[in-house]
UniProtKB/TrEMBL annotation:
This is DNA-binding transcriptional LysR family regulator. It comes from the Bacteria. Pfam families: HTH_1, LysR_substrate. Residues 7-64 form the HTH lysR-type domain. Belongs to the LysR transcriptional regulatory family. One of its GO terms (molecular function) is DNA binding. Signal peptide: none annotated.
């Protein structure tokens, strides 16, 4: 152990050259050192291993028994060390990775499903594991149990966060609702109505209820559901009003869509990850793939 503590890894290549060439000048040329520098290196190696390593004879240098043993061990070791210190690469076509993401059903529908299609096309051996959104998502990022979180409100400190897009809200009602034919749902009508609320956190719907509270306003909840898709279903045949992100409504049938009141601003949708994943090639690739998917939609 004491020899290991004294060993400079930079000595390994000269050591291998000296043991192979059994000649100071040829070994120096092989590792691009001057002959005096190689002589100093040989002196250091002799001190580290407490052995002469190379002994001069009438016909040249000869390896000591300890040097022969070192040579046998170094031959398989040096390629392993080269791999250990080589820059890590991520090759999507041959990679086998499981990427763990969390988001609401909105994130799954609008980002997760199309992202999975891209991922399986470019990295057939890899897959996404989309986990349901819950209160401890950011704690899981901190503990390394989750790779990426997708969400639409202010991020906590200590994580890397990148804005993906701005999203507007649309009011959704049944086609037979008294307000269904209006292009815009005015604020007074919005506040008089009965709403289906998507429980993002603490029974509230993220940005929607935050914007209302910021203006000392509140809406009446007739139904609270855990998923955006459930809210969309709930308005059919009822007097409920759902306030949902526009992206998930592109193919919505059997409902009426109205522009939301101006008091409801946009939602900044972001992705967050732990700083330990900043330089990981696989996760850099995943984030780039996600950006490309968002840009195309």
């Amino acid at each position: 152990m004491s020899n290991l503590a004294r060993l400079d890894l930079n000595l390994l290549a000269p050591l291998a050259a000296l043991l192979d060439e059994r000649h100071v000048s040829r070994a120096a040329e092989r590792v691009h050192l001057t002959q005096p520098a190689m002589s100093r290196t040989l002196k250091r190696l002799r001190e580290v291993f407490d052995d002469e390593l190379l002994v001069r004879t009438s016909s040249g240098y000869r390896l000591t028994p300890a040097a022969e043993r070192l040579q046998r061990r170094l031959r398989p070791l040096l390629p392993e060390l080269a791999d250990l210190f080589a820059a890590e690469e991520f090759v999507p076509a041959t990679a086998v990775e499981i990427f763990r993401l969390s988001g609401t059903d909105y994130a799954v529908d609008t980002i997760g499903v199309p992202l999975s299609t891209r991922l399986r096309r470019d990295s057939p051996g890899s897959r996404l594991h989309m986990r349901k959104w819950h209160e401890s998502v950011f704690d899981e990022l901190e503990r390394g149990e989750l790779d990426l979180a997708l969400y639409g409100y202010a991020p906590p400190p200590g994580l890397r966060t990148e804005r993906l897009f701005e999203e507007r809200f649309v009011c959704v009602v049944d086609p037979g609702h008294p307000l269904a034919r209006r292009p815009v749902l005015e604020l007074d009508d919005y506040l008089r109505g009965t709403h289906v609320v998507v429980d993002i956190r603490d029974g509230r719907q993220g940005v929607v209820d935050t914007d209302l509270r910021a203006n000392d306003l509140a809406r009446t909840a007739g139904l609270i559901v855990p998923h955006h898709r459930s809210a969309l279903i709930a308005v059919v045949g009822s007097d409920l009003i759902a306030t949902l992100p526009r992206r998930m409504l592109r193919d919505a049938d059997g409902v009426a869509l109205l522009a939301a009141p101006d008091v409801l601003g946009t939602m900044t949708y972001s992705m967050s990850w732990h700083p330990s994943l900043d330089s990981d090639p696989a996760h850099q690739w995943l984030r780039a793939l996600l950006r490309a998917e968002v840009d195309d939609t």
